[in-house]
Amino acid sequence: MSLDIALLLAQDGLVNGAIYALLALALVLVFSVTRVIFIPQGEFVAYGALTLAALQAGKVPGTLWLLGGALGAVALVEVGAALRSGSGRGLARTLAFCLGYPALLASLLRLAPIARAPAWVQVPLALAVVVPIGPAVYRLAYQPLAGASVLVLLIVSVAVHLALVGLGLLFFGAEGSRTPPFSEGRLSLWGVQVGAQSLYVLLFSAALIAGLWAFFGRTPYGKALRASAMNRVGARLVGVSPALAGRWSFGLAALVGAFSGALIAPITTIYYDTGFLIGLKGFVGAIIGGLASYPLAAAGALLVGLIEALASFWASAYKEVIVFTLIIPVLVWRSLRVHHVEEDE
């Protein structure tokens, strides 16, 4: 292997690893706060990319209808909960958002010339369509089972994943989509041509990770999520709502997933089911971090990206096998170090 090839592989590994790191951090966040192994994380990657491609093609994305249906279902659930409890506190605000937000967004997408807008306008609009689906999914599928075992929540995650994949096929079809790069420029580093889009992926990924760090360390909502992750019972005793923490964690996970999809859409063709494999590789990084450590999860995801790039050169037919085999020694090591504790009924 020559130095030029090694640098090219390292570039691909770092770019892919940066995306895997974002997804790994989102998976750790969701699991820490809600005990949910969020298998559908990858679907938000595909939804973000395909929604952006639809907006750039001048179409109304199918995810807008999913958003409207999900928020409409949330409105019905909240009305039912208010009738059962006899308290309508906050119901008017919830109904106004669930019914008004999709209508306002649909009007904007139909009337405004989004297809001719620059990328810095199209990407936030794609995020505005996809991100609220995350908290809606939590309210409909997970919040009613918040006290269930991890196994039950895992089964629910599998069901949600299958539903979102099927809806992706319905909304976007089986054909893949690719978006124009944010910039056509190229930069020469150590004799290797690096595309501007790859640099955008690295820079925006680093910026998003820094933003998450600032959110958790500097804002009241971030500190509330940290409290819920460390001690759910203690957080509840001091007034942190588990339901609110769950919605925020799923919203952040959806934001990370959809933004990751918008970043990689110009450098790879995205299909309705592409996100599952990408999410699994982020899950490998999260497992390396024990689904608890953010720095270890990010480092593990970067390692996954580099190993995948090297495997694509030496044994391309087995690169997926090699990547997913990384889980085995990590799980064996952790099983030897941690004593088994039965989960409380």
Describe the structure.
The protein is an all-alpha fold. It has one domain (3-175, 191-337). The protein is 74% helix and 2% strand. The chain is built from 15 helices and two strands. A two-stranded antiparallel ribbon has the order 1-2. It is globular and about 70 Å long.
Calculate Rg over CA atoms. 21 Å
H/E series: HHHHHHHEEHHHHHHHH
Instruction: Give the proportion of residues in helices.
Output: over 70%
Q: Number of DSSP helices?
A: 15
How would you classify the helix and strand content by structural class? mainly alpha
Strand order of the largest sheet: 1-2
Give the CA-CA distance, first to last residue: 55 Å
- Number of E-type strands: 2
Largest sheet: 2 strands, antiparallel
Tell me the fraction of residues in β-strands, as a range.
under 5%
Structure described in brief:
The protein has 345 residues and is mainly α. Helix content is 74%, strand content 2%. The protein is built from 15 helices and two strands.
What brief labels describe this structure?
globular, two-stranded antiparallel sheet, mainly alpha, single chain, 15 helices
Write the layout of secondary structure elements.
Elements: H1 3-34, H2 41-56, H3 62-85, H4 91-111, H5 119-130, H6 133-142, H7 150-172, E1 186-189, E2 192-195, H8 196-218, H9 220-230, H10 232-237, H11 242-264, H12 274-288, H13 294-314, H14 319-325, H15 327-337
Antiparallel strand pairs: 1-2
Helix pairs in contact: 1-8, 1-9, 1-11, 1-12, 1-13, 2-5, 2-7, 2-11, 2-12, 3-4, 3-6, 5-11, 6-11, 8-9, 8-11, 9-11, 12-13, 13-14
